[in-house]
Amino acid sequence: MNINGNNGGQQHWQLEVDAQGLAWATLNKAGESTNSLSSSVMDELSQLLDQLDRSPPKGLIFRSGKAAGFIAGADIQEFTRLDTPEKGIELVSRGWQLFNRLAGVSYPTLALVRGHCLGGGLELALACRYLLAVDEPSTRMGLPEVMLGIVPGWGGMLRLPERIGPQAALDMMLTGKTIDASKARRLGLADDCVPQRVMDSAAALLVLANQPRRRPPLLQRLLNGPLKALVASGARKQVARRARREHYPAPYAIIDIWARHQGNALAAPELIDSIVRSPTARNLVRVFFLQERLKSFGKASTFEAKRVHVVGAGVMGGDIAAWCALRGLTVTLQDQGMERIAPALQRAYAAWRRRVRDDRELRNIMDRLIPDPEGHGACQADVVIEAIFEDTVAKQALLQELEARIRPDAVLATNTSSLRIEDLRTVLARPERLIGIHFFNPVAKMPLVEVVAAEGADREMLQRGTAFVRQIDRLPLPVKSAPGFLVNAVLGPYMLEAMRAVDEGLEPETVDEAMLAFGMPMGPIELVDMVGLDVAMAAGKSLAGAGAESPKCLLERFNAGHLGKKAGRGFYEYRSGRPAKDAAGSVPAGLAARLVKPLLDRTQQLVTDGIVADADLADAGVIFGTGFAPFTGGPLNFLRSQHG
């Protein structure tokens, strides 16, 4: 049977009762490719529960009618309309009360989770007695509200710690990280984890058996009860290492609401209002939509790469090749001999061994990463990426040689970070086919990739290059060819100003502390060390502008061979990969504003010059390419707020 509610029936939910008396509630949100819990979806769920109150089933199973996954969370568009305290409280109250009602029904309930189950979607699943996870790579569960500057207010702060213990629950809620099906079972979040082919029958069996859920161990129950204050204190210290309360209030609010109000956000209405309508939440929601815009690039193309050929097995080239292999592509990696390629393979193995637990899967990834000193793979590749050192003549010679060997429809790309595409392509028979696909270091952590178009570039090649970037789960940013493109062009003057401050007598630690306090993930001097002082020297000439002299502090260290983190010493000494820093001195008033100004000015200039299409894309690029304080909403958004 199908449920009929108001307005001639349900738009989003379908309810069927099978021969065993089990009710199957399928969510298929109308007009969307992904399920989200908008107010209309929640209203219909309430009507569905009314119907089942009148005629209780043997059990109720929630599932998705979307290929994309279970439920992606609340409808984020609705957050942008919370302009009064009352609206914020009403939004929290609706979900809290509805899911409490679901948790209290007399019949057993189950969430059948396949694909993503995030935010409000996981809160709905937690309100069910059972959770059955489908064992597929796409199945991911999490409460990532903190990434939007808000808290899981529909029961997540109550039920997740009850189910898996407070330490694992706080780790998920305070970082926004997601877990897969097998980890969900291991933690006790999922009752079981089954293959897709048996998911419906397994769900029915679990509900009809109507067994009590297993309780968490005694220690977890104590940590969620009498020992709460101890856990909360430890969690606050951990958060303080990563995020300052004035920049990111949400993680601190999650700890307080769990520890002091049993996870009930409605018990702290003033706290909810201060979070929901904070500039941080508004800006992080903005960043979410900026990310969605970047994800939309490349969708127009049906291009799908199967083989990638990378030339240059240094840190960048080797890591690009390794990332493509991890994402399922067959990759050939070329350099001047096996002795040059071997370190890249070793680095890839070491990185993926920490990340991939299944030995067979790890072997498959490494099998897809093929050493190719002779460059035979170039002929079959769909995408060919040049990633050798920054030298125009060397790159030209290589690109000319590659063009003669690769397929006419293959994407030919350079990973140059500072040279103009126009200069590199002059030697090509079809210069318009060369595009830039510029990754950032470290490749596995930096989500942004600049897709660079020179004047008159082939549109089809640009679309294919953009589609390839999305295929390997990176965020493509279209930019025009110019020294440093967007990201390096704004970092250059910023790092230069920081080194000038050191030349004036400030300690590197003090300069870094000024920008950490501003909200940057890393100080500009440590960033110079990470980039490499040799790279900073080379890039500085083209990025700083004509006639700009290299800072004395950079020259001295460069001449002494202190090239930064990779050499074990730059501005700082590195022990076990970490900088040894002295305590920072007191930060002079106005230092952060002085240091960030060249970055803001250059970002604005690049929009004016059309290097990046608009201010929103510039903000997206600088956030995802440099880690620029996300709570500000991006450099140009920050600039507007200062002048607003």
How would you portray this structure in words?
There is one protein chain. This protein is α/β, with parallel strands linked by helices. It is 48% helix and 13% strand. It contains 27 helices and 20 strands. An eight-stranded mixed β-sheet has the order 13-12-11-14-15-16-17-18, sandwiched between helices. It has a six-stranded mixed β-sheet with strand order 1-2-3-5-7-10, sandwiched between helices.
Write the layout of secondary structure elements.
Layout: E1 13-17, E2 22-27, H1 39-54, E3 59-64, E4 69-71, H2 76-79, H3 85-103, E5 109-113, E6 116-118, H4 120-127, E7 130-134, E8 140-142, H5 156-164, H6 166-175, E9 179-180, H7 181-187, E10 192-194, H8 199-209, H9 218-223, H10 228-242, H11 249-261, H12 269-276, H13 279-296, E11 307-311, H14 315-326, E12 330-334, H15 338-355, H16 359-368, E13 369-371, E14 383-386, H17 392-405, E15 411-414, H18 421-424, E16 434-438, E17 448-453, H19 459-471, E18 475-480, H20 487-503, H21 508-518, H22 524-531, H23 533-543, H24 552-559, E19 573-575, E20 578-580, H25 591-608, H26 615-626, H27 635-643
Parallel strand pairs: 2-3, 3-5, 4-6, 5-7, 6-8, 7-10, 11-12, 11-14, 12-13, 14-15, 15-16, 17-18
Antiparallel strand pairs: 1-2, 8-9, 16-17, 19-20
Helix pairs in contact: 1-3, 3-4, 3-12, 4-5, 5-6, 6-10, 6-11, 10-11, 13-26, 14-15, 20-22, 20-23, 20-25, 21-25, 22-23, 23-24, 25-26
Keywords, please?
8-stranded mixed beta sheet, 644 residues, 27 helices, globular, single chain, 20 strands, 6-stranded mixed beta sheet, alpha/beta, 48% helix
